[in-house]
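Example pasted here:
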Amino acid sequence: MIRVLIADDQTIVRAGFAALLAAQPDIDVVAQGGDGREAVRLAETHRPDVVLMDIRMPGMDGIDATKRILADPANASTRVLVLTTFDVDEYVYEALSAGASGFLLKDATADDLVSAVRVVARGDALLAPQVTGRLIKEFSRQRRARPRPAPGLATLTARETEVLGLIAGGLSNGEIARSLVVSEHTVKTHVARVFTKLGLRDRAQAVVLAYESGLVTPGGARED
C-alpha cells in the first residue's frame, strides 16, 4: 500500500483528493492537514510514502514544510508531490529545490493524480525530465542567479559527470545509453552512483543541482 498524506488549506479540495485516492486498491490516505505546520507534524506521526503538498497555505507554506519533512532522516523514503494552480510558478522551482519530486496542477484529471502518486511513490520524478528542465531553465534565466557550489560534483567520475549533464538535458536512460553507445543497464548504474554520491532522491533533484551548480547553463551547454 502507498501511504499518502494530503496537505491543503482548502477543505473541499483536500476531501476530494482523499476520496479519490482512498478509492484506489493500492493507496491508503493516512492523514490530512490544513497547513504546512500540520503537515510536518503529521509526517512525523505517520511517515507517509507520498505527501501531496499544496504550495500556498497560511502560516507555514508548502515550501518550508517540504524542507522540514525531507530534512528529517526518518523521512528518507518519503516523497513530496507539490500541488499548484499555475504551471509556471516560481514557487514550483523553490519546491523542487527543496527536494520535491515533482509537481501537479490542481486541475489535473483524476487519472493523472492517481498516476502521479504511484510514479512518485516508486521513487521516480513525476514529470518527464525535459519538462522539469524547461521549468528550471526559465527560472534560471529570469533570476540570473549565480551558480551555487556543489562540492559533491568533484567526487564524480568524468563519465558520471557526463551522465548528470545528459539527465539535466532531459534525456531518459535509454536516450543516454544511445548517446554514449553503452547499455541501458550501464546507464542505470551510473545514474545510481550519481544519486548516491550527490545525495539525490530522483531526477528532478539532479536537474536542479546541475543548473544551480553551473554544470549546465540555461542555454543547455555544459560548463567545463
The chain has ten helices and five strands. The chain has a mean pLDDT of 85. The longest strand covers residues 27-33. The CA atoms of residues 10 and 103 lie 18 Å apart.
